[in-house]
Amino acid sequence: MNKKLKLWELDRVSEEEFKQQEKFPIIIILNDIRSLTNVGTFFRTSDAFNVQKIYLCGITATPPHREIQKTALGATQTVSWEHRADIMELVTTLKSEGVKICTIEQTEKTTMLQDVHKLPNKTYALVFGNEVNGVDQDVIDASDHILEIPQFGTKHSLNVSVCAGIVMWEFAKNTI
Q1: Is pLDDT at 55 greater than 90 in this prediction?
Q2: Given the DSSP bridges, would you call strands 26-31 and 111-112 parallel, antiparallel or unpaired?
Q3: What would the DSSP string read from start to end of the chain?
Q4: What is the DSSP pairing of strand 124-129 with strand 81-84?
Q5: Where do the domains of the chain lie?
Q6: What is the CATH number of domain 22-150+158-172?
């Protein structure tokens, strides 16, 4: 028998320990995410994958908000975050600090997600775009890499928070 573990048996770090532990070299940038539940899911997934920080840009909602909390389940208290009105100003600042900007989008020239292990060992900012319009073109133009998740069905997109989980895992597994 393979017994399912209870929450208290998972041996997770405390909120304070999480805040103090060394983070993976991953930063998340949300480009005008409209759905509050998507924002909450980004927080929860960022907690799971030990990201350094989330930047909520443009119209992306910020905590505290009941709809964000529904899916964040407290991760807004553990994951470092900041709101920035101007995403391009943020991208320029991060690039000047040596952070590599990786936009998750479908463009003419992309790197397939399964090839990220070939990228140099750096800190990466992963940019996720609006549920309808995707990532702004000026952000795409300023990016160091454009990443695409291979898809094999009839649809040509994923929910942005589902996409985030897939991409964050691909980067996190290269650091553990």
Answers
A1: yes
A2: unpaired
A3: --PPPPGGGS-PPPHHHHHHSPPPSEEEEEES---HHHHHHHHHHHHHTT-SEEEEETT---SS-HHHHHHHTTGGGTS-EEEES-HHHHHHHHHHTTPEEEEE---SS-EEGGGGGGS-S--EEEEEEBTTTBS-HHHHHH-SEEEE----SS-----HHHHHHHHHHHHHTTT-
A4: unpaired
A5: 22-150+158-172
A6: 3.40.1280.10
The string of pLDDT tens digits covering residues 128-154 is 999 999 999 999 999 999 999 999 999
CA neighbours within 13 Å on the CB side: how many for 162? 6
Q: What's the rounded mean pLDDT across residues 78-83?
A: 98
Q: Give residue 122's pLDDT band: very low, low, confident or very high (50, 70, 90).
A: very high
Question: Which tokens hold the place of 102?
Answer: 């990786």
Our CA angle for 23, 28, 30, nearest 5°, is 160
The backbone region for 55, taken as left when phi is positive above 0, alpha when psi lies in -120 to 50, beta otherwise, is beta
Q: Is 106 exposed, middle or buried (0-12, 13-18, 19+ CB in 10 A)?
A: middle
Q: And the tokens for 29?
A: 């940038």
pLDDT tens-digit profile of 23-34? 999 999 999 999
